[in-house]
Structures are given as C-alpha cells and as structure tokens.
C-alpha cells in the first residue's frame, strides 16, 4: 500500500503505524526512509505543505554535535541547570536527520538560531531558547555559524526535506524596563536600563541599538514603543504596544523597523535556504505590519512572498503563533486566530491551531466528553478556509508535555487524530521518546 502513495503520505503512514502499534505490519526498513541522493542544494521549490509532517526541536536541547561551541566563557553554559545553555547545536541536528526522517517527518522546525542575549540578570536565566534577539542577521555562537545552518539546510534538501525557522518580529531581548509611574509622553522619566550582558545594554544590530529612552535622539528615532509590561492582556492597546513578559517591544508601525525586519529575515531565505517561517507572538503584532512583512513590494527589502519567489519558492509558508485556547463550545480565540489569516485582506498563510490543541487535551488527557472535540472539529472546518495549512500539535515548548498529565494510550489516541485531521501534523521533539519534561535534553550530557 505504501508504494501507491506519495513519499510524504507514506511518511505519515509510518508515523501512524508507530502511534497505533502496527509497525510489524510495515515492510522491513519502512520505518527509516532512505535518504535521497544528496544534491547539496540550498534552494528547493516549495512543497505542498498540506502533505508535510513537521518535527519541532529546541536546538539547544536536541544534540550536541560540536562541543567546542558550548561554553562561550560567560557563565552561560551549565547543562545541570534548566536555565542555562546545554550544548545542542546545528551540527547536532544535521547528524540526526536520519532519525528525524525515520519518524516520518518531512520538515524540521528549529527554534530561532539568531544571536541572543546570553544572560538576563533580571530573570536569572539565559537566552538558550533563541527568543531574545540581540542581532536578527547573525547565528548565535552556541549554535554554530551561517555555514552550519547552510549545511543543515543542504542536508535536509538532499533528503527531500524542508527547513522551518522560528522568527520573532515583535520584540528583542529584555534590555530595559520602566519604574512607576510611567508616562507615555515622557517615557525617559521612568526608564532604566537592565544590567548589561557582556557589557552590552542594547542589541548590536542598528537601528535596534537605539534603545535608551533617556536620550532625545533615541526617542525621536521611534524604534521602540518604550512602554511598560502588559498589565491586562484583554486590552488590545497593551497587547500590541506594551512589553510582553518584559521583552522590549518594537514599534511595528515604523517604516524603518518594518524594512529592517524584512531585510533581516529575507537574509535567511536567500542565504540559508529556509523554506518556511514560524512567526512567534503573532497576536502582539498588528495585522497590517504582518501584511507588510509578507507582501511589501520594496525591491531592496521585499516582503517574504517576493523574497522567497526570488529563490524559486512559490508557496513559502509562514504560520503564526496565536496563543489562544477556547473553552468548550466557544470559538472566540479561533476567530481571532482566523483574523490573522484573513483580516481586511490576506495576512499570514497559516496559524498554529491552538484551539484544537486545547480540545485534544481536554478530551484525551482530562476526560472531557468527546462532544467537546466533535464540536471543535466542526467549528474549525467551518471557520478556517485554510485549515490544511494550520499546523496542529499535542504539546510544545510553551506548554506542559502531554504525558505530564496523561498516559501513553491517551497520547497515541491524540496523535492518531492529529495525523488524521486536516492540518499539518507537528511532533515536538521527545514526545516520541515519552518525555514528560517540557524542555528536557535528548542527549545524555544535556539538562
């Protein structure tokens, strides 16, 4: 039967067989798909994303392929602590592609590889995860180099697989905060820089380096909103313009900010052969800023659709994160998610299906009536015209592992449904290994 299917659909069936315990029914060797002839190509035409299975990894926690880049001498590397770098890198991912492909995955989603703020004294933790950018166009030294990312991309493409890169447009790392009372008209009065990291109190990439609200030139540049933390996430003004979890909020309305972000992430498509983006914290960005990111016609800093087409990718996928989970039989958050795919016009090609995640867990992990899941499926099919481009999942790096609160039979049921329903099935690393720790390491020397 597998011989009659496309390679991607056959891959899905291999995963499905693992989930329901039918691996013995597959032909010998079917569980590990052979690598295609290595073409070492940096650029491939876009696939039909409806046919893909994504494997999502936190790079620092997956495999340490190059121990020489682990410790950068700033006290940031300590595999015994969950708050510090563990040593996983791009070289480790590259050498484990046979394992990933053997699970049935056709695409690899990596956490942001960009240079990060290494140590945040306020939080007493490091940027091992990649979401605290210092420079959007550089690879973090703990993960490797641009050449390392290119090797990973070429290795994936040689196997007929694709590279998905996590990106952040909403904010950089946490370099400043506000004391109270904050005044919108005079943000410098309450402004305070945080303790420096490696002597740096600002991102190293211009114009994001203009981050001191006490300086008239920086305030006039308008690169940041210079706002305090979000106090009420139900207030749209705060959601869009205040600091999410204290992270320095970029002024998404500013033309220079928009152009620099397009240049920064177009760089990864052109020079690293990235095939798709997962866009972090989409809810905290205005939809017109995201439409600009996708469709801007600026020839020197084109939107991602044009930047991707310049490399032969005609169906470049960008799927956003909208962390919205609806109560049973409600669809308020699902409608908000849909507005990021179809607002006043086309915005993002896809969004993560958080409402489905919520209902899957309600039913399979917590014993809610199956009608909860039935209604969710009916609702999402009616509400989302592009449901087939919405990645679906049972757990990820921001929520508890499924097995934290449920057993293996329930996990198999949930994953079986994930592989069956419309959407792009997404498996978080370690789920297949029975992990219960949210960001535990896949290699013995890591945390």
What features would you highlight for this structure?
447 residues; alpha/beta; 8-stranded parallel β-sheet; two-stranded antiparallel sheet; 13 helices; 29% helix; disordered N terminus
Description:
This protein has helices spanning about 5-20, 90-95, 95-100, 145-160, 215-220, 235-240, 255-270, 285-295, 305-310, 330-340, 355-365, 370-385, 410-420; strands spanning about 55, 105-110, 115, 120, 125, 135-140, 160-165, 175-180, 190-195, 275-280, 315-320, 350, 390, 425-430. With about 450 residues, the protein is of the alpha/beta class. It is globular. Helix 11 (about 355-365) packs antiparallel against helix 12 (about 370-385). It has an 8-stranded parallel beta sheet with strand order 12-11-10-7-2-1-14-13.
SSE inventory with pairings:
Blueprint: H1 7-20, E1 54-57, H2 90-95, H3 97-102, E2 107-110, E3 114-116, E4 119-120, E5 125-126, E6 133-139, H4 146-158, E7 162-167, E8 176-178, E9 191-193, H5 216-221, H6 236-241, H7 255-272, E10 276-279, H8 287-295, H9 304-309, E11 317-320, H10 332-339, E12 350-351, H11 354-365, H12 370-383, E13 391-392, H13 408-420, E14 424-428
Parallel strand pairs: 1-2, 1-14, 2-7, 7-10, 10-11, 11-12, 13-14
Antiparallel strand pairs: 3-6, 4-5, 8-9
Helix pairs in contact: 1-13, 7-8, 11-12, 11-13
């Amino acid at each position: 039967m597998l011989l009659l299917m496309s390679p991607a659909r056959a891959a899905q069936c291999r995963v499905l067989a693992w989930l329901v315990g039918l691996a013995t029914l597959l032909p010998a060797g079917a569980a590990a798909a052979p690598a295609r002839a290595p073409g070492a190509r940096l650029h491939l035409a876009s696939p039909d994303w409806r046919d893909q299975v994504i494997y999502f990894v936190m790079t620092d926690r997956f495999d340490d392929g190059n121990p020489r880049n682990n410790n950068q001498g700033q006290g940031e590397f300590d595999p015994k602590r969950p708050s510090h770098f563990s040593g996983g890198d791009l070289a480790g991912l590259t050498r484990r592609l046979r394992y990933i492909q053997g699970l049935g995955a056709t695409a690899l989603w990596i956490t942001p590889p960009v240079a990060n703020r290494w140590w945040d004294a306020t939080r007493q933790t490091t940027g091992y995860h990649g979401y605290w950018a210092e420079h959007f166009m550089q690879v973090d030294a703990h993960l490797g180099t641009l050449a390392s990312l290119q090797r990973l991309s070429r290795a994936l493409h040689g196997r007929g697989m694709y590279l998905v890169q996590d990106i952040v447009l909403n904010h950089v790392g946490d370099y400043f905060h506000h004391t109270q009372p904050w005044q919108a008209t005079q943000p410098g009065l309450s402004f305070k820089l945080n303790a420096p990291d490696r002597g740096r109190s600002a991102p190293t990439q211009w114009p994001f380096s203009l981050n001191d609200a006490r300086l008239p030139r920086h305030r006039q540049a308008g690169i940041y909103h210079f706002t305090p933390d979000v106090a009420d996430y139900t207030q749209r003004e705060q959601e869009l313009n205040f600091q999410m979890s204290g992270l320095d909020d970029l002024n998404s309305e500013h033309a220079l900010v928009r152009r620099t972000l397009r240049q920064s992430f177009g760089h990864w498509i052109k020079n690293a052969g990235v095939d798709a983006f997962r866009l972090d914290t989409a809810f905290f960005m205005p939809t017109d800023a995201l439409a600009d990111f996708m469709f801007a016609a600026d020839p020197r800093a084109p939107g991602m659709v044009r930047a991707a087409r310049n490399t032969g990718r005609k169906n470049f996928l960008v799927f956003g994160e909208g962390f919205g989970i609806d109560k049973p039989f409600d669809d308020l958050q699902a409608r908000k998610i849909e507005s990021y795919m179809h607002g006043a016009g086309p915005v993002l090609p896809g969004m993560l299906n958080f409402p489905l995640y919520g209902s899957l867990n309600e039913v399979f992990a917590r014993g809610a009536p199956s009608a909860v899941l039935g209604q969710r499926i009916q609702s999402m099919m009616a509400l989302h015209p592009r449901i087939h481009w919405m990645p679906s999942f049972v757990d990820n790096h921001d929520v508890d592992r499924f097995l934290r609160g449920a057993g293996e039979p329930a996990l198999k049921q949930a994953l079986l449904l994930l592989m069956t329903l419309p959407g792009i099935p997404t498996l978080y690393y370690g789920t297949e290994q029975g992990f219960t720790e949210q960001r535990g390491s896949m290699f013995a020397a890591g945390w």
